[in-house]
Structure formats: C-alpha cells, structure tokens
Amino acid sequence: MRVDLDGRRFIVTGGSSGIGAATARVLAENGAQVVAISRRADPEPFVGLSGVEVVAADLGDAASVPAIIAAATADGRGIDGIVNAGGHFSHAALADATVDELDELWRVHVRTPYLLTQAALPHLTERSSLVFVSSTVARSGFAPYAAYTAVKGAVDAMARSLAMELAPRTRVNTIMPGFTATPMMGVQYDVVDGLEAAIVAKTPLGRIGGPEHAAAAIALLLSDEAAYTTGSTVVVDGGWSAAGWQA
Predict the structure, then answer these.
(1) Residue 1: which pLDDT band, with cuts at 50, 70 and 90?
(2) Active-site hit among 114, 145, 148, 228
C-alpha cells in the first residue's frame, strides 16, 4: 500500500493486534507518525518500524480519553486523524447475556470513540480524517450475537452523522470488514464448529481476508487521495455480504 502520509499524525485504537495493529504499521510505513492505543504498551507488533508510539489505555474507561489526547499532542502538534479500530467480541446469546456484557460492548465500541472524537476536536487539523471500524454483521442477521451487531450498527450510524456535523473541515468514513483472520476471529473458530469452512464457502473470492486488507482501505480513506470521500461505508469482505442466496 503506497499513499502519501508524510508528516501526518494519527491515533489508532486497538493497536495491539488485528486490524488496529495492521493499520498502525501501514500508516507508519507510508510516512505517518502513529499513536497506537492498546491495553498494554506492547511495542512487539512494531519492532523495527519507526514512527509508532504505543500508549496503554483501557477503552472501556472514559477516563482514558484525556491521556490518549495528551499523548498525541504532547509536542504541541495537531491530530490529522483517528482510526477507531479497538473492540472485542461477545459470544453471549440473548438468553445468557448480562447487562454488564452489553454495557462493556457499548463503552468500548461506541461511547469511548464518541468521547475521543469530541476531545480531539480542538486539535484536528484542516485536512483531518476519521475512520470508524464497523462490521458487515451490522447489516446482516448474525445469531446469536445481537449485542455485538447492535453496537457495530451504532458505529456505522454515528460515523455517518459525524460526517455531516464535522464537514467540511473533517472527513468521516466507515469501513465494514467481513470475517477477517485476526485473533478475535480465531476464538470464534474454537467456539463454532465448521465456521471457517462455512465462511470460505460463502465468500465469492474463496478465502478469508487478512487485517492488511482492511488496513489498506483505511490508509486510503485517511489520505488526500480520498479528499472527496466522506459519509461513506467501504465494505472489505471478499464479496461475502453481496453473495446472498447465490452463496
């Protein structure tokens, strides 16, 4: 992936693994300075790569927001963009889900990204760009995971409204990855027998994508090459959501 991000500064949540870590790497490889947010300040995903600062923060705690902003603006520079990629999955079916599980999903996927965007407003540059990571399951029935699909749907709706509210200074877009080869997906393979084969069978491109595919789409949306794109949702799923009855 090659886009011009020289001198730009981005916050990327979920930076310890999966799509967040892949995005932080791609942005840094294209000249950006990245503040990667993870529960643990683990630099291992970025060994040998300059331009990435890893900051520990708990996205389930709203008190983490000021520390994230402070880390990104420590030298007085502005913020060119935020990638809200942090998140987690819940396997609880409706009959078994607890209020605490639902609230934690909401805090991590919706509340903290909202508050982080709010806190970043005074620091956003003239050509800033925000990307929210939703999921194709937000637009497809996906049992028994109604809690997870609900918050991912909220992410998509929130991003579209922010695109209107923050224009023309800041662009806001969403990506919807499909099933992606990340540690979170690996856990689902252990829980649901035959899931991997079923996904491949329904995917027109005949394979499961990696986090680097989502990261490439994010990098493009953050760049000036996408300067006329806002309020959009980009699906990165190998055709899975388009397959319908033909799968």
Answers:
(1) low
(2) 148
